[in-house]
Write a structure and sequence with these properties.
- This is Cell division protein CrgA.
- Keywords: Cell cycle, Cell division, Cell membrane, Membrane, Transmembrane, Transmembrane helix.
- It is found in: Cell membrane.
- Pfam families: CrgA.
- This protein has a domain at 33-84.
- The protein has three helices and no strands.
- The longest helix is centred in the middle third of the chain and has 22 residues, at 34-55.
- With 88 residues, the protein is mostly helical.
Length: 88
Amino acid sequence: MPKSQVRKKKVYTPPTDIRPAAAAAASKKPSPILLPITAVTLIVVGIAWLVVYYLSSQKWPVESWSYWNLAVGFGCMVASLGILSRWR
């Protein structure tokens, strides 16, 4: 019994005039040095805000804000995470 022919698939080559992967890779620049410095500063400020709030028996940094002081401290830390997501 004769053997059937095996079709050879052509190797796909993308068009040379359109290369989105190469264009995207070329457009990514390294992050400015200020970005990680800002993120670390926000983390430290957030932790310091919470520590001062608890150690002062909820009198400092702003007594009239009461539990909103927690939102400020955690908000600083979450903002730093958002900034760090942009870091390359």
